[in-house]
Amino acid sequence: MSGQLTDIGSNLTHDSFAADLPQVIRRAIEAGVTRQIVTGADLDSSRAAAALAAAHPSTLWSTAGIHPHHAAQFNRARREELEELLREPRVVAVGECGLDYYRDFSPRAAQRSAFIAQLELATSARKPVFLHQRDAHEDFAAILAEHRPGLVGGVAHCFTGGARELEDYLDLDLSIGITGWICDERRGLELRGVVPRIPPSRLMLETDAPYLLPRDLLPRPASRRNEPAFLPHIARTVAQLRGESFDLLAETTTRNAAHFFGLKIGA
After folding, report:
1. How far apart are CA 150 and CA 190, in angstroms?
2. Is the torsion defined by CA of 242, 247, 250, 254 positive or negative?
3. Number of structural domains the chain divides into
C-alpha cells in the first residue's frame, strides 16, 4: 500500500479520453493511482461514470450530480433520475454540485435551487457531497451551513482559495481537495500558503483530469491533457509544502478518501 494514491476527481467520461481510456486507466495504476472517483457533472456524464465504475470494480467509483453550469436543466424528472442513480452502490457521492458565479452559465437562482435540491438528495441518500464553488463563497457557505447538519460529509473540490475560505470550510467540517492548481507558481501562490494549514484528516488529492494540467510538469504532454497518472506529481508538491514525506501524504490521503467515500481497501 505504500505510496498508493486515490484521485478523488477525474473526468474520465470526457471526450478527450474516448480514444485511449484503457491506457489512461492502466497508466494511472502503474503510477500508483490505484483508485479513482469519476466525476458526474450532468445526468449523461453521471450515468456514464456509473457504468465505467461498474466495469472497473477494482479501481473506479463515481459521483452523480448536476454541475452549476447545468443547473438551468434541473427539474423534477432529473431529480428523480439522479435519486435513482444514487442507489447504485458504486456511486459514492452527490455532485459535482454547488455554485459558479464566475461563468454564470445558469441563472444564479437556478444554481441555488439545484444546489439545495442536491444537498437534500445527499441527506436522504446518506452520501457525501462533491462540491464546486467559484466566485460564490458567501452564498455557497450560507446554503451549506443551513444543510450541513443533515449531511454525512462534504469535500470542497478543487479548492483554490485562501485563508478565509479555508477557515470557513473547516468550520463547516468539510474536507479539502487539492489539484494541480498548487503547481502553478502564479495562480496558486495563495493556495500554496494555506495548504500547510489543512488538518491531515481533511486533506484529499485530485487531478480534475483532463483539466488543470500541472503547470510545472515536465515533460509536458503534447496534448496538454491532464491525466490521473500525474497525481503523484501533485502529491509531491503538496508533501513538500507541508514538510511531509510523499509516503506519509499518500497514506493519509488514501485513508481519508477510503473513509470519506466508503471505499473498501483492496476492493
Report:
1. 32
2. negative
3. 1
The type of residue at 145 is A
Longest distance between any two alpha carbons in the chain, whole Å: 49
Label each residue of 67-83 as H, E or C: CHHHHHHCCHHHHHHHH
Amino acid at 135: D
pTM reported for the whole predicted model: 0.96
131 in a structural domain: yes
For the stretch 122-153, pLDDT in tens is: 999 999 999 999 999 999 999 999 999 999 99
Judge contact between 130 and 153, C-beta under 8 A: no
Helices (H) and strands (E) in the chain, counts: 9, 8
Set of cell numbers at residue 15: 471526450
Q: Exposed, middle or buried by CB within 10 Å (0-12, 13-18, 19+), for 199?
A: exposed
Structural domain of residue 79, as residue ranges? 5-261
- The reply to whether 252 falls in a domain is yes
CA-nearest of 257, 211, 240, 230 to 11 is 211
- Record the cell numbers describing residue 239, joined without a space: 508533501
Q: How far is CA 95 from the centre of its chain?
A: 9
Model confidence over 42-80: pLDDT tens digits? 999 999 999 999 999 999 999 999 999 999 999 999 999
> Residue 51 maps to which CATH number?
3.20.20.140
Cell representation of residue 111 = 444554481
Distance CA 152, CA 135 (A): 25
